[in-house]
Amino acid sequence: RPGEALPAGGLSAPCPPGKELAVGVPGAGPGGLPAGGAECPVPPREGAGGAGVGGWGRDRLSARPGVRWFKGKWLELGTKSGIRFQCSETFDQDKKVYIFELLIGKVVIGDRGDYRCEVTGKEKSDMCTFSIDVEGELSLSLRGDGKDNMAGELDFSGLLKKREVQVEEKKKKKKDEEDDAFPPEIWELLKGVTKKSEYERIAFQYGITDLRGMLKRLKKAKVEVKKSAAFTRKLDPAYQVDKGNKIKMVVEISDPDLPIKWYKNGQELKPSAKYVFENVGKKRILTINKCTLADDAAYECAVADEKLFTELFVKEPPVLITKGLDDHQVFVGDRVQLEVEVSEEGAQVMWMKDGVELTRDTAFKYRFKKDGKKHYLIINEATKEDTGLYRVMTNGGQSEGELVVEDKQLEVLQDIADLTVKAAEQAEFKCEVSDEKVTGKWYKNGVEVRPSKRIHITHKGRFHKLVIEDVRPEDEADYTFVPDGFALSLSAKLNFLEPPRIHLDCSGKTAENTIIVVAGNKVRLDVPITGEPAPTVSWMKGDKVGAGAETWGRARVEVHPDESSFVIDSAERGDEDTYCITVTNPVGQDSAVLHIKVVDVPDPPEAVRITSVGEDWAILVWDPPKYDGGNPITGYLMERKKKGSMRWMKLNFEVYGDTTYESTRMIEGVLYEMRVFAVNAIGVSQPSHNTKPFMPIAPTSEPTHLTLEDVTDTTATLKWRPPDRLGAGGIDGYLVQYCLEGSEEGDAHLALTVPPTADEWVPANTELVERCGFTVKGLPTGQKILFRVIGVNIAGQSAPATMGQPVTIREIVEQPKIRLPRQLRQTYIKKVGEQVNLLIPFQGKPRPKVTWMKDGRPLDPKEVSIRTSDLDTILFIRSAARHHSGQYQLSVQIENMEDQATIQIQKPGPPVAVQVKEVWGFNVLLEWQPPKDDGNSEITGYTIQKADKKTMEWFTVYEHNRLTRCTISDLVMGNEYSFRVYSQNICGLSDTPGVSKNTALIQKTGIIFKPLDYQEHDFRMAPRVLTPLIDRTVVAGYSTALNCAVRGHPKPKVIWMKNHVEIREDPKFLMKNSQGVLTLHIRKPSPFDAGTYSCLAVNELGEALTECKLDVRALAQAGDQRCRWVGGSGVRGQCRLEIRGAAGWGAGGACRGWEMT
C-alpha cells in the first residue's frame, strides 16, 4: 500500500494500475533492506506513479542523517533530475523513525532498472538496493461479496487465462514502446559516442533515467565496426580483481614505434611502483600492483588518434569471524570485556545489544578497542541494564554472546542522620554496613565529594565517616553515601545557621561608598545579603524609611532571596542623598550606608563670536558655561560648516583647553558658521549658538619675475608673471608705476639705499592691465627709472613687486649671432619621405635680416618653406626627397654686421638584391649583391627572412649579417621556401626587400608525392573593412586612440595617413595590429593633430580604405597669456606657437597646412 515499507523479507504482490509502488526500509531494524535488495515481481504500469520509501532509526543517531537516491551506479536523483523525481522525509515521533520517500510521477519505460538508497550519519552509514521494472498496463479484476472493491481479492486465475492472450500483444507493443521511449535523433547521437562518460552526459541532458536499458538497446543496434589501424588486439570491455591483488591489461599495436599513453578517469598515468608499463614486441602491458578500492575506475589506452576503453572492478573480500564471542556472568560494578577476532586487520565491525547498535554515548559507557585482528567491547562498571544478548557483525558473518549481571547483597546497620550546625562548627556524617570490605563514595547534591583540608573521608571496618570542618553556608546540602557495587544509597541533610551580613566591595568609608550617577540614567543598587534563616531588609533615605516594594516617588525597593535592590528609574539632581540598608534575623543584624551623587553634562558655552579673519583663517572666542554639570570642564570641541550646508566638520578631536581658537585651512571667499561644545568627565554639552556668518578673504601676493623685456629711447617694455597666490578674489588686473632715481633727494647714493615714498611713484596706466606685460611710454631719454607692479583684486592691492636695479632709458644695439643647435653642427640625416623641420634661434637688435641659400642659390619656395620671427627662423620640407640633399647657408645681417651658418642634409634611399645558389639536405645557400643605392650611407648589414609556400608567413632567420651570402639550416623536409633580404644602414632597413627569384624545395627521401585529387579551396580574399573609423572630438593634452577592424588574406599591409599623407616613424603615433583590429594611438594631441585620418589595407587582391575626422579642442582660460601664435599669411600660411618660459617667449612648435582666418 502507498506509504508503507517492505518487511524484512521483502514483498511480492501485484501492483494495481494507477497506484504508487513503495519500496522501504523498516526504521526499527538495524540493517534496512536485505543485501540483495527487493524487487516487485509485478511492476507499475507506464504512466502510473512510483515511490521508494526508506526508514532510519533515530535512537541510534545523534543528529539527522543525510540521504541520497541513485539510479544505476552513478546517476544521483534529485531536483536536477526533473520534476518527476521528488524526494521527501518525515519523522515518526512514536516509533522514533525517519522515513525518506522518493516519488516518481508518470512512470515511463526508461525508469526501469536498479536503484540504491544511501543514508549517512555522523558515525555510520548504510545502503540498500532495489530494482523497478515497468511494463504495459495490466487489466486486473477484484472479486468480493458485494462489499467495497478494496475489500475484495485479486482474481489470479482470471489473470492467468488472459495472460496467454496478452503475451503476443505485449511482444508486439514492446518494440513500439522501445522505439517511442527515446527520439530517433538521440539514437543517432549515441551511435557516434566514443567515450563511456559521454553516455551519462547525453542521458542526463535529455532526461533518460534508464541508462542500462539504453546501453542494452544500443548494443543490439547494428553499428558498422571500423577496423582499427593502430590496434591489432584490443582491451577487454571490463576487468575484475580482488582487493590486494594485481591486474594486467594487454593490448597489441600494429607499429611498435608508435607511442602509447594510459589514462585513469581521464588523467594520464606515469610509471611508478604502483603502475608498471611493459613493452614485449608489439604488446603493451599495464600492470597495477596491490589493487585498492581507489583503483576501481575507467581506464583508457591511446595511440595516435585512436583510443580503447575499459573498466576495472575491484572486489573487496568479505571479513570473516575467526574467534567468536564467549558468554559472561559478572556482578554489578565489575569490568566486562567482550573479545572477537576477525580475518583481516583494520576491518569494520558493528556491535549490537538485543538487536540495537551500540555507540559511544555521552557518558562513554561503552568503549571500543582494536588490536590488530582483535576487537574488544569494554564496559568499565557493569549494571543490571547491561544484561542481554550481545552480537558482533561483519560483512562476512556474525557472532553472539550472552552477558548476565547480578546484584550484590548488603545490610545497613546504622543510617546517617540529618545535622543542624552554626558557622565555624564541625559536621560529622556516620554510617555502618555489614561488610567491612565494601567501599563507597560520598555525594553532595549528586556531585561526588573529594577530600580537602576541611573535608575528611574515613573508612574503618564497617564504619564510613564524612567530617566537614569550619562549616560554611555553601556546605548546606543533601549528602548521600553509595556503596560500590550495590544498588543502595544512604542520605541525610545538613542545615546551616548564619547571622545576616551585607556583602559590599567597599569598607564602609564615605568616599568609597559614594556612587556617582549620570543624570537621566537608571540607578540599580544590587546589595548581596546572606543569613540563615533569611533576614528581613529595610532601606532609609535620609530620615525617610521604606521597605519591600514601598517607593519614594521614582525610587523603589525590590527584595530577592540573595540580594536587595534599590532602583531609581531616571536619576535627577534631587536623588542625590545618603541611603542606609539594614538586614535582621534571629541570629543578628547588619547595616551599610551608601551615598549617591548625580552628575550631568555641562551647559553649552556662551557668547560665541568671531573677532578677526584672514585669507584662510579666523579667530573664534567664547565664554565658559555657567553650569559645569558637577564636574570640572576638561575642554571644548569646535565645529564649522559652510553657510546653507547641514554638514558640520570637527575642528579638533582632542579637547581644547583655552577659550580662544584659530581656525585655519578655510576656503577663501566662502561664508562659514562655527559653534562650540563644552566637555566634562560625563560627556559633551549641547552645541552653542552659531556664530554670525563670516568670509575669509585677503589680497593676492605680489607679482613675480618682474623683468625688462625691451627698452628704447622713450619706452620700456616690462613683463612679469602672475602672483603665486591669487586667493578667492582672483586677480582683476595690475598697476604699473615708475619713479625717477633720486627724484626727491637728488642724491644718487641715497636713491639706492632709501626706498622711494608712495608720493614719488607715478602711475603708468590709468586702467588695470590684464596681461602680464606692459609698455611704459613717454619716458625721459637717458634717465634711470625704477619700476614696480601691483596686483589688484576685490580685497585691495597686493604688495608691490619692484625691480632690483634702475633702468636707463636708451636704445640698445646687439650684434647678430646664430645659435646653431648641436645636432645641426654635423651632417643632418633624414629618410626619404620624412619631414624636415629645422628651428634655428638667433639674436640681434634691432631685428636682423635673415637669408637662406642652398649650394649658393636661393631656395625654391614651392618645395621649401621658410618662416622667420624676431628670435628664430624655421626651414620646413613636408616630404624629403633625394634632391633635397646638400648644404644650406643661413645669413643674419644688421646693417654692416653679419653672421652665417652652414647645414648639410643627407637622406638615404631603399636598397635591393637575391637568389638561391644550392640546396642540400635541410640546408640552403643564399647569395645576393649589394644594393645599387646605399642611401648616401654605408651598408651596416642585412636581414634575411624565409617563408613557407603554403602559409607565406615570413620569419626572420638572420639579422645584421655582414656578408652578401648565408647558409640557412634546419628547414622542414617536404616544404618549399622563398627568401627575401633587407639592406640596413644607419637609417634602418630598406623599404622594400630583395626577394629570391627561385625557391628551395626540401625533397623527401624515398617518398613519392601523390597530388591531391581535389582542388584546394582558395581562402584568399581582398581586404574588407569590418568596423570603420568613426569621427571623434577630443580634448588637447589627453591621449586618444582610433580603432577599426579589417579582414583579408594574405595578411594585408596597413598604412595610416593623416590628411592623405602617410604617417611614418613619428614617436607621437603608435600603430598596433591585433588579430585584424587596427589601432592608432595619439599621444597627448594638440590642435595641430586635428584633421582627416584614414586607414588603408592593401594586399595582392585589392585594397580597402576607411576615414574619420578628428577634432582637438584646446581648453583656454580667460586672461591666460602663457602661449601665443606668431606669423602666418596667405590662404595656406605657416604659424608658430610660442610658449612663455622663465627666459621669455620661445618657440614651442610649428603647424603646417592650417587655413588661417
UniProtKB/TrEMBL annotation:
GO molecular function: actin binding
GO cellular component: M band; myosin filament
Transmembrane segments: none
Keywords recorded for this protein, A-Z: Actin-binding, Cell adhesion, Immunoglobulin domain, Muscle protein, Phosphoprotein, Repeat, Thick filament
Keyword Phosphoprotein: yes
Domain of life of the organism encoding this protein: Eukaryota
Signal sequence, renumbered to the chain: none
UniProt xrefs under CDD domains: FN3 (cd00063), Ig (cd00096), Ig_C5_MyBP-C (cd05894), Ig_Titin_like (cd05748)
Ig-like domain span: 229-305, 317-404, 408-480, 816-904, 1023-1106
Gene Ontology BP, a term: cell adhesion
InterPro entries: FN3_dom, FN3_sf, Ig-like_dom, Ig-like_dom_sf, Ig-like_fold, Ig_I-set, Ig_sub, Ig_sub2
SUPFAM superfamilies xrefs: Fibronectin type III, Immunoglobulin
A matching Pfam family: THB
Keyword Phosphoprotein: yes
Family the UniProt entry places it in: Belongs to the immunoglobulin superfamily. MyBP family.
Protein name per UniProt: Myosin binding protein C2
Top-level taxonomy: Eukaryota, Metazoa, Chordata, Craniata, Vertebrata
Recorded name of the encoding gene: MYBPC2
